[in-house]
Amino acid sequence: MRPDFENTAIAFQLKTDSELERAYFLFRLIANEPLVKIGTAVTNFAIKAHLPIEGLIRASVFDHFCGGVNEEDCLPIIDRMYEKGVRSILDYSVEGKEVENQFDDALLKTLEILDFVKEKDAMPFAVFKPTGFGRFQLYQKLSEGATLTDDENAEWERVINRYEQACKKAHDLDVSLLIDAEESWMQDAADDLVLQMMRKYNKEKPVVYNTLQMYRWDRMDYLKQLLEIAEQEDFQIGVKVVRGAYMEKENERAKEYNYQSPICESKQATDDNFDQAVSYIMEHLDRISIYAGTHNEESCHRLIEQMEAKKLEATNPNIWFGQLYGMSDHITFNLAELGYNVSKYVPYGPVRDVMPYLIRRAEENTSVAGQTSRELSLLKKEKKRRKLD
Ligand SMILES: Cc1cc2nc3c(=O)[nH]c(=O)nc-3n(C[C@H](O)[C@H](O)[C@H](O)COP(=O)(O)OP(=O)(O)OC[C@H]3O[C@@H](n4cnc5c(N)ncnc54)[C@H](O)[C@@H]3O)c2cc1C
Q1: Measured by CB atoms within 10 angstroms of the end CB, which terminus of the chain is less buried, N or C?
Q2: Mutate-to-test residue for ligand 1 from 210, 217, 243, 300, highest number of ligand atoms within 8 A of CB
Q3: Which residues contact 259 (CB under 8 A, 6 or more apart)?
Q4: Which residues pair with 179 in a beta bridge?
Q5: Average pLDDT score, the chain
């Protein structure tokens, strides 16, 4: 059945009137691009200067887009969403770390969360970021084919070992693990490592999922190659399909170093590439499982149409939808209402450490990126329905 994404009563059923007002106020603020630019600069400065602005950030963007500063904070949110059929993926969103013990901390978090995933039906996957487990520059050096020093080789062994521990534990507990994708110039090394993990741990079912950013024009070819390898070597593939979150950075770098940008030439080309990947996976569901991470209504409708054409149940375990906490509740909750497998990424971590994540969310929600007007019009509609205007 086709979900009704206009149903705001279902979309915002967990929001109190004051939370609804706060969301409306917040999206109105971040719709303003110059304000987001200034706000980002001021916040970065204030954090570096150790000014006491954490309370302000918490009460505004943080509480809207994050579950809390630690796992316990997130539990009430996870339980409340689960009552409405929405699952949660706890996402330790501390970014930009460079030190070994911080990578070990991120591994420990992932291992702990895997235990939660095993115990709690409300949590279907664990997730980690490649640069949560190792230094960006190290991935980059490997991706560029440079020779590592002895120390770097030892450092890379430790990165492999972290992937190994996380993926083995997921396999032993019989739960699944998503691995995010990041900037293209470090991604090859991460992809190679994830492939090694899939070979080892996806023999019977998709335990390890890599992420494909379909704003990259080379990802369809990559997906086809991956399928060839999986067929030859007989393992299952898990893929999270997204459009991609680093477009500006990618285009700027390509321009600066004078190489062809890896990003599709237009939004339409990205959309087509995304659709193509989804259709390709749906044609090979016996071998590839999909987690569609998107806030695009049309993409969700298309996937549902293909499920219906193949007479697949909404609860098919190989097909998942996902949105980010604080965004596109109209998609998440209306999909859940019809019984589709749907989850929210629930980011958490110390306020100052999740700032890069929050800044990405604010930037992608400016009026230029386009998503805000949709959020605003739905929030407005619900305010009216509740007679709050
Ligand atoms: C559950 C979940 C997990 C995610 N995990 C990751 C991850 O691991 N790695 C990651 O990078 N992102 C990730 N994202 C973010 C995602 O990549 C997108 O940034 C975000 O979801 C917006 O895209 P959309 O499909 O929702 O929809 P839309 O709003 O329809 O698309 C916006 C996207 O289209 C692309 N785009 C916009 N303009 C152009 C243009 N001119 N030319 C070419 N392309 C254009 C960009 O990718 C932009 O983000 C995740 C998102 C979700 C919901």
Answers
A1: C
A2: 243
A3: none
A4: 128
A5: 93
Distances in Å between the Cα of 21 and the Cα atoms of 175, 259, 362, 379 are 38, 46, 18, 8
Query: What letter does residue 60 receive in the DSSP assignment?
Result: I
pLDDT in tens, 176-186: 999 999 999 99
How far is Cα 275 from Cα 287, in angstroms, rounded to an integer? 18
More reliable by pLDDT, 353 or 332: 332
Q: For the chain, how long is the longest CA-to-CA vector? A: 66
- Cα–Cα distance for residue pair 260/250, rounded to 1 Å: 10
Find how far residue 5's CA is from the centre of its chain. 21
Cα 257 to ligand 1 centroid, rounded to whole Å: 24
User: Cα of 61 to ligand 1 centre, how many Å?
Assistant: 20
pLDDT tens-place string over residues 361-387: 877 776 555 667 889 999 999 999 999
Band of the pLDDT at 38, cuts 50, 70, 90?
A: confident
Contact, 334 vs 5, CB < 8 A? yes
CA of 277 to the centre of ligand 1 (A): 14
Ligand 1 contact, 127 CB (< 6 A):
no
For a pLDDT cut of 70, what percent of the chain falls above it?
98
31 in contact with ligand 1, CB cutoff 6 A = no
Are residues 132 and 103 in contact, defined by beta-carbon separation less than 8 angstroms?
A: yes
Torsion angle (degrees, nearest 10) of CA 295, 8, 351, 108: -60
Looking at the CA of residue 264, tell me the nearest atom of ligand 1: 43
